[in-house]
Amino acid sequence: MKNQKSRSLIIAHRGASGLAPENTALSFNKAIELGVDMIETDCRLTSDGIVVRIHDSALNDPAGNMLPVAETSYETLREHKPDLLTLTEAISLSDRRVRLMVEIKPDVPAAPVMDIIRDFMAKGWQPSDFIFASFDYDVLRQVYADMPEVERIVLEVWSGVRAVRRAKRLDTTYLSMDQWFLWWYFVRQISKHYKLFSYPDERVFLKLNHTRPSRWFKYGLYGVITDFPDRYTKYTD
After folding, report:
1. What pTM, to 2 d.p., does this model score?
2. CA 173 to CA 180: how far, in whole Å?
3. In the predicted structure, residue 237 carries a pLDDT above the cut 60
């Protein structure tokens, strides 16, 4: 697996989702081609118990159909989205070339996701090949209890106090917060004790300023989660 350098890390959000369809093999391979340090991927569970890589709770196909992931079989979802990847396929595709940030959605059972990670670790993958992430404290508490050897990231929108409190309870130094609520002094202070990531804000005008977090690298921002990992190369080389 790629060695992490002493610089701010670049994490591809849902793969290189600004350059290829999110959470697909294309975005995954593009991110690896660009040499990212990690790939962030979303996990949801289908009605027949398959862990798939998809962000939203429902799949919107090109015809305008909405299929709730938790109420739809994997086969049906794949008919409407042929490039839908399972978590197992994504891990196999990575082939330990890049670390995977596995985000478990708040309404998704953690056990099936952990079972998949265990299967790969039994085949030689290492705990350091993965890192769990979630906005749901109970999800992170479960993965900490059941797989403490795999690191955890506390995902938080705006409250640094809540993020730090949860990190202490979960014995982790990894935090990830919405870049909209970050500013240089907060980044400098929190980075003295924690490894802070910023993740993309959904506001339209910020989509026009993809490299905004680069201004915080000098204040200790540990990593940037981005749809456009190619736009950060000049700040990190």
Report:
1. 0.93
2. 21
3. no
